[in-house]
Amino acid sequence: MKVLMFGWEFPPKIYGGLAVASYGITNGLSHIEGVETTFCLPRPCGEEEDFLNIVAMNEVPIVWRDHDCNYLREHLHTNSTEDYYRYRDAIYADFNYRNVNELGGLDFAGGYPSNLQEEINNFSIIAGVVARARSFDIIHAHDWLTFPAGVHAKQVSGKPLVIHVHATDFDRSRGKVNPTVYAVEKDGMDHADCIMCVSELTRQTVIRHYHQDPAKCVAMHNAVYPLSREIQEIKPQKRGNEKIVTFLGRITMQKGPEYFVEAAAKVLERTRGIRFWMAGSGDKLEEMIALVAKRGISDRFHFPGFQRGRQVYECYKNSDVFVMPSVSEPFGIAPLEAMQCGCPCIISKQSGCGEILKRCIKTNYWDIDAMADAIYSICTNEGLYNYLREEGKKEVDGITWDKVAQRIYDCYRRLI
Q1: Quick check: bond before 12 cis, omega within 30?
Q2: CA angle 146, 7, 339 (to 5 degrees)
Q3: pLDDT above 50: residue 66
Q4: What integer best gives the mean pLDDT of the chain?
């Protein structure tokens, strides 16, 4: 079985959970006999692992007539979806293929630049070229950024389309939905033969807010892959009797960082033997720094910045408690990673990962009193700490990407 997969992130360049999930799924599929995955990225760094075929979309050779190119660019943002596909397909009639050394493809900045919508559109155009040039059995597109690419590949090839919803704009915006993003998401869902959602929470959002047939929507929870020997050998740094409580992730509205700060302030009213880390970056970072100062807890609160690679696991291993107070979290891989490292977790009840995790504490994101009580209890009750540490690790060790990949493969087979 040949899978044509479209994604926006892939390790070693990691911007968030999307890259981790893309790696886990493709790595799991590589262990299934007869499955060959081609993964299309806007701009690979060249250091991706070789268990799958990577297509650099910025190097796909294309050429088109100048007046058609200009016409498309002028109408890309203003025409209806129907007109967009009609004009784009008309241009394809005039494409000529050339050697990539003679003519490169469209360039991509990679990541999430200011012209993101343009890059999404260009990515979808090149997806048609790839779909015409390659042989495959099924299409799999990750998150809204690649939905247009998946739709176009389906229109070109007639092959079944799976879209993978890692988050919706309802999650990212706390209900203040961007109509452009919503339209892209819904169009992808409307064209999909199967919609994989990272949790039942997300599945219900897709059914209710995007008006999708429940029969084609399936909850496909994320997982974790085994820790490397290098990570396993990381030793926590000794720091006396002080406890460390960590928030690690994007410091944005969706992740609920202000609730973490408020809970920290309540804990520090009871004891000063705990330090709080808020690791990450995001548009609410300066606001959180100001809130920490306002609450008078700056001497016990630290902002170590964005963590990557080994630093993430050092963070988990040096922490006594990991807190994810997300307002709306479609899944949330970070608690699973923390539990792998033997770090007890507190997550919001609004997190999709809570559907499969039992050995952690769950509170409402807004209930800072309950969150503070849970933090204080884990830090001061050795029996509770040891139970969550040991049983949590056992639980997460059984949640593997190979199991997820097998479920995805079974879906592929049914669709084909």
Answers
A1: yes
A2: 125
A3: no
A4: 89
Whole-number Å distance between alpha carbons of 155 and 162: 13
Instruction: Please report how many Cα atoms fall inside a 13 Å half-sphere around the Cα of residue 192, on the Cβ side.
Output: 36
- With a CB cutoff of 8 Å and minimum separation 6, the contacts of 410 are none
Chain-centroid distance of CA 67 in Å reads: 38
Locus of tokens 């897709």: 206
* 69-94 mean pLDDT: 48
Task: Kindly give the pairing relationship between strand 161-165 and strand 53-56.
Answer: unpaired
Q: What is the CATH number of domain 2-62+97-223+401-415?
A: 3.40.50.2000
Locate the domains of the chain by residue range.
2-62+97-223+401-415, 229-397
Q: What is the pLDDT of residues 144-167, one digit of tens each?
A: 999 999 999 999 999 999 999 999
Q: Identical fold at 2-62+97-223+401-415 and 229-397?
A: yes
How far is residue 405's CA from residue 355's CA, in Å, rounded to a whole number? 19
Structure tokens at 303: 């902002």
The alpha carbon of residue 257 and the mean position of all alpha carbons in its chain are separated, in whole angstroms, by 18
Token pair 């360039």 is found at 107
- Does domain 229-397 correspond to CATH entry 3.20.20.80? no
If you compute the radius of gyration of the chain from its CA atoms, what whole number of angstroms results? 23
| Res. 98 pLDDT band, cuts 50 70 90 | very low
